[in-house]
Amino acid sequence: MRNFAAILPCVALCACASVPRSSRLTTQDFTLLAADVAAALNQAPAIRERDAASPRWTIAMNKAENLSNDLIPSREQWALVTSVRDHADLVRLGREKNFALIIPAERLREGLASGSLEPGTAADRAPTHELAATILSVSRSAITSRADVYVCEFRLTEIGSGELLWSQTFDIKRAAHGLSFD
Amino acid sequence: MRPRMNHLRSVIVRLAACAALGTLPACASPRIDPRIAAAADAGRFGVAGDALGASLHDNPGDREYLLSRVQLMLAVLAEGQPQAAEETANDVYALLRRQGLNADRTVRSVVFHEGVRIWKGEPFEQALAYSYIGMQKAMLGEWDNARAAAQSSLFLLRDFSRATGKQNPTTLDIARRAAEADRADAGEGDRLLDHGYVAEQTDFALGYLLTAIASKALGREDEASDNLTAAARANPRLEPLVEQMRQRPFNTVLFVDYGRGPAKIASGPDGAVAEFLPRTRSDDRGLTVRVEGAEPCTVPVAQDVNSMARSHRWRNLEEVRALKSTLGDLLLVGGVAVAANSRGDNRDTQMAVGAGMALLGALLKAGSTADTRHAELLPQRTYVVPLWLEPEDEHQIEVQVEGSESRVTLASLRGPAFPDTMQLRYVRIPAQPDRAPWRSGELRYANPRTDERVPGDETPYIFGGRCVRLPDAETVRRYHDAGRLTNLTGVELENLYRAEGITLTVEDQRGAFARHVLDGGTSLVAPLAGTTGYSRLFCGEHPPYKPRSDELRRAIAEERALAGAADRP
Prior knowledge:
Chain A is of the alpha/beta class and about 180 residues long.
């Protein structure tokens, strides 16, 4: 009977366990990352020295390039772009510093090709700058655990001159437990 | 004696407790519907995909959740529809990347039956699933995700050769060695399984090749070169192919699957040992590739799935643990029984032993059967074919396994539209070539993937013609120019499709796969050119369309009346 009694707590414990089982990035990570990017851009010298009277910047932001060890579905790559572009702090900053983030060329091409965007949409978008994002990662795994450090690099480049105006990396650490094969 | 008796009682109590909890599972492992298997064998992957999609398990806690999605992904990719496989592939990846999926099921599953576990597949099935996810991403041009998925397939493998003293130990060899270690010292068996292996680099040549191609597509030449080297090291027969990929430019890669993957069966005493048996024999026959206007070439087998399934390095240790447990308990019961009989001075003990043996024997017999669920739609082998195709021309490409009738002619494939870009096509050669009369590659239906005209394409298929293009402005103009459907606008034609319940995009299908109208289905979404699905749908003959709605019946009647009036002098 003692043995039987010993089984139940184990089963219950396992059933209730809430240890992280995946070290992948989540959409919640992208939301938090967008806030960090907005705050960092606010502090970037190239932006800080601007004001509402500065020449207008039109910044195109393409889909984040995924060079991590993990699949990041296309819709999540776009979600990161959208989270950054639509972040309230960045929208406000755009008004104060006279810049606008515009529809990415890839999305425009897709929209025109699929018919979801009317022909002629954003015909005169003419971006002056590009905000690019690349996600890299380093992974460590053991028998029953795995840890990933994701490094998200953002770069603001002036298209005409190719000058890199700002770049910063943001780290996200994730760990998971449990047999990987199981 | 006392510790052994205590252990026996413990086993009996454990078994009784689990039996009382109703956890004794059924022995039968579900199999894919034979009609689905037959459709896949004949190359009718759309039919197979449709049926698999309809029987998809929706609860992530379901034991077949992942397995059902892997099968669906394979069928939809073979049909040439990577976009319709997107959600499924993402789900499969999420589950494969989730660790400890069965962590809360270990107690009962290890003691009794693997079948209560959520299927996650053997490591070789996982590696292959990752590579198919990579192919799906590459077919969509998402080379960054293709690279990530391909890299995920290159996990370290566990080698027990040294621990067992055998060159190629079987599951049974490893389990026996662990059970012996347990007898010598309790817990030693688990330690051997957890730490007694040598972690080795994978020999998954297909994963290295896909990573190399994805890296090259991303402009990461050094990484591509390293992975090509690793592919040749894993499979030395790939050396000439790897050299060709280093020396000659290519902008198109075909991943060609052939044959039926191995079947997992229960063997040994009471079917406690799972074994993979070949369904298509392994051999060295290459794949001959004929592109119009070019010399034929032959590529070697890149990956043999039979040999992966045979190797203990590609197998799951959970099965070994279950087997070890069974072997250990049998040894224990036998030992106690002998001891009890030899003393004969304690009737209660003998009765307890007898009851325990009866219960244990019955339960082991009922529950020790190996879990034989497996990804039945996997191929026996994969070939990798690098090609250079000009974007201006549509190419007809024949792929044929050397010395066999197994071949497919791929139609309407162009080179990538943009310079310095790469494209990938997944091609599945049907297992039963005699049932595939569409192999000629001659186009019979106009479709959105090509500008080629075919006789009868001035009328939509649903009106009795041979056009299955989307009802866009250009297509409708083509109908009107031929004097057809002149009383219908593009929007009205689109509404007729909708009245028929026919979807025009994958989004209309909520991201899921749906069978094409030519196949008796409800979708107008076309497979990619250069895939088996494309050839079968658009180069094969299909029965005439049967209208479902009154709207279409009326429109057909009006069209006939107009045509009749036009024909009258």
